[in-house]
Amino acid sequence: MSTRLELLWIEKYRPKKLDDIVDQEEVIQGLKNLLKGDIKEMPHLLFAGPPGTGKTTTALALAREIYGGQWRDYVLELNASDERGINVIRERVKIFAQYFTPSEKAPFKIVILDEADMMTSEAQTALRRIMEINARVTRFILICNYITRIISPIQSRTAIFRFKRLPKEGAIQYLKMICDSEGVECSPDVLDKIYEASLGDLRKAINLLQSVSTVTGGKPTVKDVESIVGKATPEAIVKMIDALRMGDFNSARNLLFDFISVSNLDGQEVIKLIFNELMMRNLLQPEVAEVLAEYEYRILTSAYYEIQLTALLAKLSRLLGSRGQ
Amino acid sequence: MVEMVWTEKHRPRSLNEIIGNEEAKLELVRWLRNWEEGKSDFPGILLVGPPGIGKTTAVHALANDFSYHVVELNASEYRTAEKIYEKLGSLGRSYTLERYFTGRERRIIVFFDEIDGIDPKEDRGGLDAVIEIAGKRDFPVVAAANVPDPQKHKKLFELFKVVEFRQLTPKHIIILLKRIVEREGLKIDYEIIKKIAERARGDARLAINMLQAASLGIPVESISQSLENLPLDELLRRLSSSLSYYEIKQLIDANSSLWEDLIYTYFDIIARSPVLKFDAKIQLLDALSKIDIYLGRMNKERQFFYLRYLSHLIAWLIYNANKSGAVYDGRIPEYRLYKFVFNRDAREEFTELSEALGRSIHESRRKFTLYTLPTFCKLVKRKYSKLCEWVKKVYGW
């Protein structure tokens, strides 16, 4: 499966060794020191930092360093945002840890739990128990964007590694390496533009580079980058905002329902998409931002986020619509 | 002065005043006489029958007619054997003292109301205590139940004399209501009395409550219990056709099992209404959004006190929607279509594929859908064409 998906550059050029990770010297040095000592003593780890800075990649590379080529046998990857409920996690971790005898080569198994900050605090409390119960044969690597969303009992049981937003130089160097290897002709301007648009998120940058290279047959210009960045938002959302600016609430609502019924994204993500698109179009006036914030907050305790999103659209239609007229 | 509830104000004081259930009343009297002479085969009596037809009233009236005092042990208060004995013990003492000082004998009937509310498992010994107290024959013991369970209350059935109270006929209720109308000096149309009698389903308490409401000018239609558990469509029609805030609230309270459907349907009605002014629409949607939050909190935290407030908020919402002209037009609410039918195949396939693809490159479905899918779809042509078709349709990528 992995070979086919290597047509995605983010996967094809994912660093395999800790040494190849871009620009996270402190983290890498810390992990290497850890590997030099008695590996049996390795604590649970918590990787925190902005998206696209190499957290998952580092976790996978670390697993390779410990287990070598057979690493997949010893690693369970879970996504807190996909795996529904703590019970699923408990079950899978239990089964995963059950049939395992620690050896010199593999003193423990590793569970990589991505997007751990998407879990509710109740689920995290349960997770803490799971971590304790299975500590003898299993180490957890928790990955999150916001460390403040991880409950402190978990924080205190893990060694925390903070990933920094990627500085420009390192990111551009990496993009250049990919260009050379793929035969893409990219001027420094184009790479600058890509970096700028991705805000230090290397996943975004590489995806952008690949998209623009594919579309232009390997010779992207700054203009091409701009036009593709402009299309980053799902068209349904773009059209929805167009409709809102015309004060056409009904069309906006139909587009919204069409979009969520297929994409299956939840309310908070839809609001994030709306936010990004409004920001890109310079429509994010203070009162608009306030309404978005209010409704994202409401969604947290709502029963049906469709109601919240619709109420939000009505408000936005008033705010944006009057501006357009 | 506080307006007195008529069911209390006009509660019969003597068995003669109680309308209907003649046979049962006779049985009661016969049994008490036998009991007093120590001739009764039964240590106690069990009154069985639906609510609101005079079981409790009959016990109090019986006591009144024969100069007894009723010690009522409401099963919902005193449940365990210990609690029952505690209460009876202290009473026994105080009556002994009273007799000592006044020389007057005060006779007691012990009345266990709502005995089917005693749970044999949770309220251990409660039922046994009732039987034991009756068995001592210190006092006449009466128990009453709406729905006795042949298994749970087996011993009671065996030992006690069972007296059945039946629903009142509309004729009985009319007599009852007319008497109250007369006493209150009201002018209420006979047609209304007839209507109440028909809708009360043989329940005197309900009938009297309806009469009191009618005397305040509230239409009988909106207070009848027959409005409970309406089909959603019927409920929506009634809500749209009426009504005062009070009537709406009544309807909503009587159909609490349909609240979620109501909220969703009104969400749909309001959002799609062609007649609502846009400002009103914004306002009503905002009200809905708040209702939804309380509903969410209630479900999440299992805090059911929110129900109290929800009923008011929903009534307010519907009342205002009605006033602004957003009413149910018989269309199936769109949310149902959207949730269950719209794009379902697409959604399932889309979700499954993006989850699998995401996993294979160490990304969650969410991340893959949001950040990597656009690139992915520019690259592949054939293998995942179905996925990309949907992506193109909805995402426009």
> Looking at this structure, what is the CATH superfamily of the domain at 21-164 in chain B?
P-loop containing nucleotide triphosphate hydrolases
Radius of gyration of chain B: 31 Å
Order of helices and strands of chain B: HHEHEHEHEHEHHHHHHHHHHHHH
Low-confidence stretches of chain A: none
Query: What's the overall geometry of chain B?
Result: elongated
Helix fraction of chain A by DSSP (H/I, runs of at least 4): 55-70%
Mean pLDDT of chain A: 87
How many H/I helices of chain A? 16
What percent strand of chain B?
5-15%
Overall 3D geometry of chain A? globular
By CATH, the architecture of the largest domain in chain A is named 3-Layer(aba) Sandwich
Largest interface: A-B, 62 and 60 residues
Number of beta strands of chain B: 5
Structural class of chain B: alpha/beta
- Low-pLDDT regions of chain B: none
What top-tier CATH class of the domain at 21-164 in chain B fits best? Alpha Beta
Percentage of residues in DSSP E strands of chain A: 5-15%
- CATH architectural grouping of the domain at 21-164 in chain B: 3-Layer(aba) Sandwich
CA(first)-CA(last) distance of chain B: 73 Å
Helix-strand sequence of chain A = HHHEHEHEHEHEHHHHHHHHH
Summarize the structure in words.
The complex is a heterodimer of chains A (325) and B (397). Chain A is of the alpha/beta class. Chain A has helices at 2-5, 9-12, 25-36, 55-67, 85-98, 121-133, 152-155, 168-182, 188-198, 202-215, 222-230, 235-245, 249-263, 267-280, 286-300, 305-324; strands spanning 44-48, 75-79, 109-114, 138-144, 158-162. Chain A has 16 helices and 5 strands. Chain A has a 5-stranded parallel beta sheet, sandwiched between helices. The radius of gyration of chain A is 22 Å and the shape is globular. Among the domains of chain B are: 21-164, Rossmann fold, CATH 3.40.50; 168-225, Orthogonal Bundle (Helicase, Ruva Protein, domain 3), CATH 1.10.8; 344-395, no CATH class. In chain B, 60% of the residues lie in helices and 7% in strands. A 5-stranded parallel beta sheet of chain B has the order 2-3-4-1-5, with helices on both faces. In chain B, helix 5 (126-136) links the parallel strand 3 (107-113) and strand 4. In chain B, helix 4 (81-102) packs parallel to helix 5, helix 7 (170-184) crosses helix 8 (190-199) and helix 12 (245-254) packs across helix 15. Chain B is elongated and about 100 Å long. At the A-B interface, helix 1, helix 10, helix 12, helix 13 and helix 16 of A face helix 13, helix 14, helix 16, helix 17 and helix 18 of B.
